[in-house]
Structures are given as C-alpha cells and as structure tokens.
C-alpha cells in the first residue's frame, strides 16, 4: 500500500476514482479480519448512510497489537515522555502494551462494561490514556475521550449525551508548572450524570481526592485483581468504535461517530503514506489524545502500522521553549507532527533553544489543525527541517477521521500554505453558494467531498438528523466540510478557513454559539455576539461583544470582564475564554432580528472602513458606537 513516487500516487489516485471498491478492498486485505466482508461499500449521501466492508468482522486491537507480536513484540510501541524532563519516561513494547491493554480491558469488564457500552475517558497524556482507549476497543466498548481542559459542565454534557456507564480518569494532571485536578472536575460533573455507575481513577499527581464507596475505584488496585488474558471481542466493521465530540456552528458539541473497519483502514493507510513511515522510526505527534489528531495519529494509525509512537505529557514551553527540540534530540525523532499555533509560538522565542539541539534525526515534518501561514511554514522548513525535510500540511477534520488533502512526504512537491492534493480515495469539489460545482483551476469556493472514503463520519450520536442537516443538506449529494478553499493553477488546494460560525483558536475548534451561550449565562448579561479575529499566535482570537443590563464603567468593566471569563471557563473550559470583550449598548441586527456578524467581524479585524452595506440594519447608529468602542479596546 506504500506509494513511493509521484507516478505511483497518480496511478493510485486514478485507481481509487475508477474503482473505489477495488482500491480499498486491496488495502483492507492487508489487515487481520476474523471474517471477510461481503460487500465493500454501500452508500447514499441523502440519508446519509455509508457502510464499508459490510459483514466483515474484526477487532482493531488485534490489528494494532496482536498481529505485531510475532514480528515486533519487543519493539517499542509507545514511548512516553513525562511532563517533567527529570522524571523517568516509560517505553512499552508491543508485548507490554498488549499485556496492559488486556489487563485494563479486564478491569473495565470487572466494573460492568460490556460490548456497546459507552466509556468516558478524561485523563492526562499518560500511557494509561492510550491503554484505556485500546482496552475499550478490545471489548467492544465505545470510548468517548474528553480533552483534559474541558470543564465539569462540558464533561457532564458529553457523558449524558452518550449515556456513559463508566468514567476513566486520574487524580490530577501535570501540564508545565501547573497541576490540574481532574478527579475533582469529574466529581462536579457526576452530580448531574445518573448513567455513570463506576469511576476508575489512576494516581498521577497524588493530589487528595474523594473516593465514593461503591462508585470510585483505584485503577492500580483493580489491575492487581485481573489477568492479562482478554480475547478480543469480534466486532462488525460497522460497529461503533468511538464517539468524539466536536463543535459546530449551532448548539452543543455533537458526538461524531466512527466505526471499526473503515476507520482502521483509512488511518493506517494515511499514516503510512503521508508520513512515509519506515520500520524502526519514531513518530512524534504533539496533539492531545483528546482530539481527533491524537486518536488517529498517536494511537490507531501508528499502532495499526506497527510503528513507534511518542506520547508527550507536557507543553512545548516548559521548562523552557526548547522542549520539543529536546525531545527530538533525546529520542532521535524521525517524524514530527504539530500545529501551526505551536510553531508560531515557538518562533517568537528566537533560535537559541533550537540551535543547541541536534535535530538531524528528523525526516518529515507535519502540520495540522489550521491554516499554516507562510512565515511559520518557512521557519519550520528553515530552522527545524533545515530545508531537507518535506513538510506535509495535512487538511482534515474530526468528521473525516483521517487526513484528506495533503502532500505525501517526499513524493508530492510542496508549496507553502498549500495542503496540495487529495489523497487517493478523496474526491474534493469546490462549490458556489448555490451548490454549483466550480470546475477548473484558479478558482475558489466551499469545499465539499463527493464520494465516501472509509473513515467518513457515520452519524452524530443519538441524533442522525443532525448529522444529515449539518453535513449533507447544505449541498445535495455532497459532504460539506464547512471550509473555504482555493484551487490554484496547478490544481493544488489551499484551505482558507471556516466559512461557518466555527472558530479555530490555537487549532482548537470552538463554536461561536457555544461561547455566546456561556457568556449569556453570566449574571447581568443580556446578549452577546462572538466572532473570530486574526491573532498572531493563536491563528484566531475570540472577540465578544456583550450587552450588559447596565453598561459598566471603567474599573467595573474590567472586573466584570474577568468575571465573564471565569464564567466561560466554568461552563466550557479555559480554551474558550474570549481574548477581547467589548461592552456595547446594542448589536447590529437586520430588521428580522439576525445579527450581522459580517460587520462585527470586520470591526474585530480593525477593518472599519469597509463595512459594506449597513442600510438594512434596524439601527445603523449602533455601528458607529461599536466602532468607537473597538478603537478604545484595541488601544487597551
Ligand atoms: O478548518 C479546518 C481546520 O480545522 C478544522 C477541523 O477541526 P477539527 O475537527 O478539530 O480537526 C482538526 C485536526 C484534524 C477544519 O475544518 N484545519 C485542519 N487542518 C487544516 C485546517 N485548516 C487548514 N489547513 C489544515 N492543514
């Protein structure tokens, strides 16, 4: 399945378009199936209904673990680098990982988890997180990993939506010089989660935690009570593997559902090809397993390919801004996969901490999560890759499960800021507002995909209609990504950013509606409108226009802003805190009551000269007031 040359890429692409079923069947055959599939693909985008490898039976952990034991049982599967560089790390070989996953799976079973049950995982970036994920998959339980930075309220929403039976967590987490109380947050969440019967708690920080009799158990103690014998559950290719919550333009985050067969085949295929992974290499993806990047390119993709994957608990700037380079040097990392926001933030510290490390082991650099600006691309290329490592700018989404548009390292000619070409099996189209396909090159439009790939979203958990509405109803017969995109004269794709009300802040996806709801919960707030604005490091910053019952004056305004930030932190989590808050007496609305975000966006961007047509506004006067206030805000 490995593509080595551009000709091979073109041939594979052609094959995947002419005969998608034959193309994917050939790749899928390289995995271990308990029973072969009867039909490779059945689909329609109207319901939508997509099924791959129909009737096929497998367990993804047999492919990620068992099948590697004979040949590479003693090869490292996971290398763990703790937050504190002075703490000893952990290396788990495939045999050790297999053993620990089986034990953890038995712990889940002991605590009542059976096939199909949902398990919420809220953990620091420690090996036990990956182990818990795989343990769920081993017994056919559906994992729902919640990023460790989300609030109790966010956890509760996710647990309740999926009706999780068990939570796996830790006493606390280390992140840089901070210690974060995870169990306490889970305890707060569980006040409102009647479905949860058991909480399995790992000790990490040894911070005091309450342990409720009959509900809470220590992971270490439970592990003493089980054996390492846990046969893998036989799963249907279309059985649910996991739910991962992600933000959209409206309402609460939705649970994106991925299934066993297609997700496995696609993440392994893309991992192997995009990064051109070679046996023995070490892959370092800096994402958190709480996001899709971590699911697909720390855990499942690399392990399905028998790779060595590095899991890092800490942050790029602690103990100093050379931490990534320290890790690259220490482990002789071959592939580094990170986000533009991290690159931009490290760029700001200069080269001192880069140059005192040996980065010569690096062979491929990856970028993911947001558009990479030209300056960051070149800095990455010049100073990290030393102009000898291809940069793969990988475009994809939680809903796509794996990388969709990206260079293949060393095979596709790269171009700064371009995700370049679709991978085999991916059929992108650009459409105008009416859904009409924009053909040819040198054009831009809304990015859609017109044919299913194996790891396409199957549904949004518990609400299939929401899945249809969000992704398959905007343009008939197409999966709509929510992204704007241009295709240049060479047919290369460049993602320009979201065209809906979704923000991308430091590579984290946040819905404006979610942030507004959180702000509106604050006492004294009447209404709010949230937009994104360009931010040097985060990519996008969050700008909130807030109407208060009483317009606060100077000092009070600052205090109220702090309180609003605390409310947002409490309701969603610190990642959703606005960077700027401006109190306003009104919002620009149309006569039908719709907020004209276009105007608010322009003002937040500082582009007040070109606000366009404001004559349809109910009260055009409000715009001048907001403009004046924004100037004061910008100076502050
Ligand atoms: O806007 C695109 C942006 O991130 C969105 C998906 O976010 P999420 O589901 O959290 O997944 C992020 C990791 C895969 C997309 O709709 N995005 C992701 N990768 C890129 C990107 N924008 C530009 N270039 C990329 N390489």
TrEMBL record:
Q: Is Acetylation there in the keyword field?
A: yes
AMP-binding enzyme C-terminal domain spans which residues? 514-594
Record's keyword terms, sorted: Acetylation, ATP-binding, Ligase, Nucleotide-binding
Superkingdom of origin organism: Bacteria
The residues covered by the Acetyl-coenzyme A synthetase N-terminal domain are 9-64
Looking at the record, the residues that make up the AMP-dependent synthetase/ligase domain are 66-452
> Transmembrane residues, as ranges?
none
Q: Could you tell me the Gene Ontology terms of the biological process aspect for this record?
A: acetyl-CoA biosynthetic process from acetate
Entry-linked InterPro entries = Ac_CoA_lig, ACAS_N, AMP-bd_C, AMP-bd_C_sf, AMP-binding_CS, AMP-dep_synth/lig_dom, ANL_N_sf
Q: Output this protein's name.
A: Acetate--CoA ligase
List the source organism. Fibrisoma limi BUZ 3
């Amino acid at each position: 399945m490995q593509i080595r040359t551009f000709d091979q890429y073109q041939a594979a692409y052609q094959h995947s378009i002419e005969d998608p079923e034959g193309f994917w069947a050939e790749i899928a055959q390289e995995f271990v199936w308990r029973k072969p599939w009867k039909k490779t693909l059945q689909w329609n985008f109207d319901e939508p209904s997509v099924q791959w490898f129909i009737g096929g039976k497998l367990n993804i952990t047999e492919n990620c673990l068992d099948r590697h034991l004979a040949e590479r049982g003693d090869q490292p599967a996971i290398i763990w680098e703790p937050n504190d560089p002075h703490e000893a790390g952990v290396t788990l070989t495939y045999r050790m990982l297999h053993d620990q996953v089986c034990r953890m799976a038995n712990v889940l079973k002991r605590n009542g988890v059976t096939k199909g049950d949902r398990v919420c995982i809220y953990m620091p970036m420690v090996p036990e997180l990956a182990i818990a994920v795989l343990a769920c998959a081993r017994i056919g339980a559906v994992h729902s990993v919640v990023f460790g930075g989300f609030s109790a309220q966010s956890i509760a929403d996710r647990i309740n939506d999926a009706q999780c039976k068990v939570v796996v967590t830790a006493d606390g987490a280390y992140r840089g010089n901070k210690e974060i109380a995870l169990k306490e947050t889970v305890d707060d969440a569980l006040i409102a989660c009647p479905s949860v019967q058991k909480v399995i708690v790992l000790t990490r920080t040894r911070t005091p935690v309450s342990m409720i009799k009959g509900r809470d158990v220590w992971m270490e103690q439970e592990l003493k009570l089980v054996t390492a014998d846990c046969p893998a559950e036989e799963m249907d290719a279309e059985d649910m593997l996991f739910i991962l919550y992600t933000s959209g333009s409206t309402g609460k985050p939705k649970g994106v559902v991925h299934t066993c067969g297609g997700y496995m085949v696609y993440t392994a295929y893309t991992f192997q090809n995009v990064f051109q992974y070679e046996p023995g290499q070490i892959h370092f993806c800096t994402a958190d397993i709480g996001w899709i990047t971590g699911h697909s390119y720390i855990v499942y993709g690399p392990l399905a390919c028998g790779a060595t994957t590095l899991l890092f608990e800490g942050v790029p700037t602690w103990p100093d801004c050379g931490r990534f380079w320290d890790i690259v040097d220490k482990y002789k990392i071959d592939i580094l996969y990170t986000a533009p926001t991290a690159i931009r933030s490290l760029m700001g510290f200069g080269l001192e901490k880069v140059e005192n490390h040996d980065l010569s082991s690096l062979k491929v650099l990856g970028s993911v999560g947001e558009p990479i600006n030209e300056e960051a691309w070149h800095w990455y290329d010049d100073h990290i890759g030393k102009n000898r490592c291809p940069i793969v700018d990988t475009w994809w989404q939680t809903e796509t499960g794996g990388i969709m548009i990206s260079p293949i390292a060393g095979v596709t000619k790269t171009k700064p800021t371009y995700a370049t070409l679709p991978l085999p099996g991916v059929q992108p189209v650009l459409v105008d507002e009416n859904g009409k396909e924009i053909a040819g090159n040198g054009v831009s439009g809304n990015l859609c995909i017109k044919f299913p790939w194996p790891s396409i979203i199957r549904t949004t958990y518990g609400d299939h209609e929401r899945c249809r509405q969000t992704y398959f109803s905007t343009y008939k017969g197409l999966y709509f990504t929510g992204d704007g995109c241009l295709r240049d004269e060479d047919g290369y794709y460049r993602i320009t950013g979201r065209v809906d009300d979704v923000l991308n802040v430091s590579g984290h996806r946040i819905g404006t509606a979610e942030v507004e709801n959180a702000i509106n919960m604050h006492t004294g707030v009447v209404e709010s409108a949230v937009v994104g604005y360009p931010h040097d490091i985060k990519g996008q910053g969050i700008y909130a226009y807030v109407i208060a019952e009483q317009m606060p004056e100077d000092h009070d305004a600052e205090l109220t802003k702090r309180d609003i930030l605390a409310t947002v932190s409490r309701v969603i989590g610190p990642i959703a805190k606005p960077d700027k808050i401006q109190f306003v007496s009104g919002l620009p609305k149309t006569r039908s009551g719709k907020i004209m975000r276009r105007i608010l966006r322009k003002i937040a961007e500082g582009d007040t000269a070109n606000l366009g047509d404001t004559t349809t506004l109910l009260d055009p006067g409000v715009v001048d007031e907001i403009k004046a206030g924004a100037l004061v805000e910008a100076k502050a």
